[in-house]
Write a structure and sequence with these properties.
With 283 residues, the protein is α/β, with parallel strands linked by helices. The protein folds into 2 domains: 64 residues, Helicase, Ruva Protein, domain 3; 195 residues, Rossmann fold (3-Layer(aba) Sandwich), CATH 3.40.50.150. It is built from 13 helices and 9 strands. The strands form 2 sheets. A 7-stranded mixed beta sheet has the order 5-4-3-6-7-9-8, with helices on both faces. A two-stranded antiparallel ribbon has the order 1-2. Helix 1 packs across helix 2, helix 1 packs parallel to helix 4 and helix 2 crosses helix 4.
Length: 283
């Protein structure tokens, strides 16, 4: 039987052919998944033999990764806001830059907690992070995808979050059913904002495996954002905030989209200096 260390090195060599990856890190994570290993076991018992079944499972995972299946879909886990979220194929993978959106939402949330709505919740990473950080708040998470909501509910159960409600619907449709007009303190969203031309240039991991409708709203990439800006005032309280993420090169077009119904508009850059999170207050 092959040892843990030898199997790891074999996987690492195979994964070196992938562009822009850390083959050692990916081989280690895939081995943990295949063998049920912990980091400590990997470090302290590298000579431990593994079964032929584990070897086959690991090499199958490596083969899938070489076919450009995203690592997160193979391991089933993605860390966000210092929490491990389950993510399955067909559900948008959380990105680290979206933590900036959570950070800004926490800054703007009412001291008493208030009502926060997350539009397009996906795996639930934003809504669950806010619910855990603001236990006195009531959080509503909306998504058009039943698969995404099933994943998000599972993540909420794992984290023991109770102050969170999930709603199926396209954008504001679910909020209308709940009669939340003029009741929301904070409306947050990581909307689809990739233009169709940009989608065609993305790496295969994104283009071939992640859900297109979670990334591409239309030709320009601004279609969902326009709907968010147009419909948001119906649900926000006077003085309530809209906080949403945007893509590279979109910041110059946002002020004109917001118009006179919004005030105190600001756009915060991410750690790479890219304008990333828009904040606007309902006038």
């Amino acid at each position: 039987m092959i040892s843990i260390q030898a199997l790891f090195l074999r996987g690492e060599r195979l994964l070196r052919s992938l562009p822009d990856t850390d083959p050692a890190l990916e081989a280690r994570l895939l081995l943990f998944k295949a063998a049920g290993l912990t980091e400590r076991e990997f470090v302290t018992r590298p000579d431990r033999p593994v079964s032929a079944r584990v070897e086959r499972r690991f090499l199958k995972l490596v083969g899938s990764r070489l076919s450009r299946v995203p690592l997160v879909y193979l391991t089933g886990e993605k860390e966000f806001w210092s929490v491990s979220f389950s993510v399955s194929p067909g559900v948008f993978i959380p990105r680290p830059e979206t933590e900036l959106l959570v950070e800004k939402a926490i800054e703007l949330s009412p001291k008493r907690g208030g009502l926060i709505v997350d539009i397009g919740t996906g795996s639930g990473n934003i809504a669950i992070s806010l619910a855990k950080s603001l236990p006195s708040a009531k959080v509503v998470a909306v998504d058009i995808s039943r698969r995404a909501l099933k994943t998000a509910r599972g993540n909420a159960e794992r984290q023991g979050v109770k102050n969170l409600t999930f709603v199926l619907g396209d954008l504001f449709a679910g909020l209308r059913r709940l009669r939340l007009q003029s009741r929301v303190d904070l409306l947050v969203s990581n909307p689809p904002y990739v233009a169709l031309t940009e989608w065609q240039e993305l790496e295969p991991e994104v283009r071939e495996f992640e859900p297109k409708r979670a990334l591409v709203p239309g030709v320009t990439g601004l279609e969902f954002i326009r709907r968010l800006i147009k419909g948001g005032p119906d649900f926000l309280k006077p003085g309530g905030f809209l906080v949403f993420e945007i893509g590279f090169g979109q910041s110059g077009r946002i002020p004109a989209l917001l118009g006179p119904g919004w005030t105190d508009v600001s756009i915060r850059p991410d750690l790479s200096g890219i304008p990333r999170v828009v904040v606007a207050r309902k006038a």
